[in-house]
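Lay summary. Proteins are chains of building blocks that fold into shapes, and those shapes determine what they do. In this project we predict the shape from the chain. Here is one chain we studied, written as its sequence of building blocks.
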Amino acid sequence: MHDLVPLVLRGLQLLFAIILLGMTGYLVSNTTGRYYGYHFSSPSQVAFMLFNAVWTLYIDPHLNVPVPALPYLALGPRFLPSSFNNKVIHLTLDALTAIFWFAGFIALAAWYGDHDYCLGSACGVIVATCVFGAFEWLLFTATTVLNGIDFNRSRNSTSAVKTAPETSTV
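And here is the predicted shape, written in a compact code that computers can read:
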């Protein structure tokens, strides 16, 4: 049961990241273009949420090649050798990703709340993106807490174990 909870959380993170990638891609395409000869681009808040989805699905933790984040975080502890599987890296990646999602959904919600007009069908997508971003932040916060507890336990268990001094036998 203890091993099942992180995998379920990682699966939900993957599902929400894919959903958010689609929604933010739609928002970028819907908020970029020309209007009566004026060129406009998507807001930076939308672009940051798109970055968050891509970061979640595809980051470079410490290798020289891009590695999908969630498979690395979910399957690394089981299948990778300890040189590629560092608990500090897991804790750092989870915390950094949680910070990114928090900043992203708050910025998008604040941007949306400042506007009196709506972009047609994008209004509902903006609200849904904020909600899914908040859930993604909660999921990454939960896995950060679980990794922090695991890191603290492993650090305390290795420091508490002391080897007895060698004794000579007569």
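What the prediction tells us: The radius of gyration is 21 Å.
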